[in-house]
TrEMBL record:
Record-stated family: Belongs to the enoyl-CoA hydratase/isomerase family.
A Pfam cross-reference name: ECH_2
Signal sequence coordinates: 1-18
Origin: domain of life: Eukaryota
Domain (Enoyl-CoA hydratase/isomerase) ranges: 49-350
Reactions it catalyzes: 3-hydroxy-2-methylpropanoyl-CoA + H2O = 3-hydroxy-2-methylpropanoate + CoA + H(+)
Species the sequence originates in: Vitis vinifera
Name of the protein in its database record: 3-hydroxyisobutyryl-CoA hydrolase
Pathway(s) annotated for this protein in UniProt: Amino-acid degradation; L-valine degradation
Length: 360
């Protein structure tokens, strides 16, 4: 719970500087004005507990209620010696497309940025507790996983993907930055592939996720229910036992010829540069040497993103290589609070207000 206490301290520190108070009724009015029942489902099976994100019509984007419910149940599971394994999955075509930012942006525009800070603090706390749970966590990632969905799953012990999985961290496109610990889990990918993903918002499929290390296993979607049923019978927290069960359903992969991961040498050459400007210059030089569709897409994405967001993320991921997860999350929180207050610029609020995207 150390991170929780630190985040609370940071929140109180920032709140004292806010130009407007944080009314206790605001969070309830934002989150309960259109209440949705059963946003998260919890199932028990012998020694296994399942957490099922249940907003398929919203791509399982995270609300304050969902985060609160998962936190409460996770605390119970941690204390229960009968619980040996946790399974996290999403209903429908998405695992989780991120955090539902609509209410947050509305409250910030009304002068209550501290609602966003409270929401975000709770989300990062959940990410940290899932990552450090004493119970092994299997994330079944079938479908879209972006932003906050990556925060829930990318630091879990087992990350199972399928042919339907689509991963991306495109926060720069809405004036934010790849957060929820991205400076930790992306910085640990081979070479400078993490810089490429975070700065361009490029999408990966399940096979690419396995190849670069974002996933631990690749299972065909037709076998996912069989795997889930097999995991439901597990009565041990032994990592090797759980891995053997998953491996029994795993399939071999082969990357597409056009996969960016096959261009890791060029990615390292370009994205190892010191500044965003130097990275763009190197990419443009490479594009001039041939018709490289992925490079052209990378340049286009970076030029359409918030320059401030790109610079923030580049600094964070470079520092993240030597930091612990909790330190990366705390730094994410601090920067996000400044963005909510428009300390840097209004990019996040202005773009999100127009797009109403679900990412972090």
């Amino acid at each position: 719970m150390l991170l929780t206490l630190i985040l609370i301290g940071l929140y109180l520190s920032h709140s004292s500087k806010s130009s407007s108070s944080f009314p206790s009724s605001l969070m309830a009015s934002r989150s309960l004005s259109h209440p949705e029942p059963n946003q998260v489902l919890f199932e028990e099976s012998s020694c296994v507990r399942k957490v099922i994100l249940n907003r398929p019509h919203k791509l399982n984007s995270l609300t304050y209620e969902m985060i609160s419910q998962i936190l409460r149940n996770l605390e119970v599971y941690e204390k229960d010696p009968m619980v040996k394994l946790l399974i996290l999955k999403g209903q429908g075509k998405a695992f989780c497309a991120g955090g539902d930012v609509v209410g947050m942006v509305l409250s910030i525009n009304e002068g209550h940025w501290s609602f966003g800070a409270s929401f975000y603090k709770k989300q990062l706390t959940l990410d940290y507790l899932l990552a450090t749970s004493t119970k092994p966590l299997v994330s079944l990632i079938n479908g879209i996983v972006m932003g906050g969905g990556a925060g829930l799953s990318m630091n879990s012990m087992f990350r199972v993907v399928t042919e339907n999985t689509v991963f991306a961290m495109p926060e720069g496109q809405i004036g934010f930055f790849p957060d929820v610990g991205a400076s930790y889990f992306l910085s640990r990918l081979p070479g400078y592939f993490g810089e490429y993903l975070g700065l361009t918002g490029a999408r990966l499929d399940g096979k690419e996720m396995l190849a670069c290390g974002l996933a631990t296993h690749f299972v065909l979607s037709k076998d996912l229910l069989l795997l889930e049923n097999a995991l439901s019978e597990v009565a041990s927290s032994d990592a090797s036992t759980i891995s053997r069960v998953i491996s029994g359903f795993s399939s071999k992969i082969s990357l597409k010829k056009e996969s960016a991961y096959r261009r890791l040498e060029t990615i390292n050459k370009c994205f190892s540069r010191r500044t965003v400007e130097e990275i763009l210059s190197m990419l443009e030089n490479e594009a001039a040497n041939g018709d490289n569709k992925w490079i052209i897409q990378a340049i286009s994405s970076m030029k359409s993103a918030s320059p401030t967001s790109l610079k923030i993320f580049l600094k964070l991921i470079r520092e993240g290589r030597t930091k612990e997860l909790k330190d990366c999350l705390i730094q994410d929180y601090t920067i996000a609070c400044h963005m909510f207050q428009r300390t840097f610029n209004p990019d996040f609020i202005e773009v999100s207000r127009l797009d109403s995207l679900c990412l972090f």
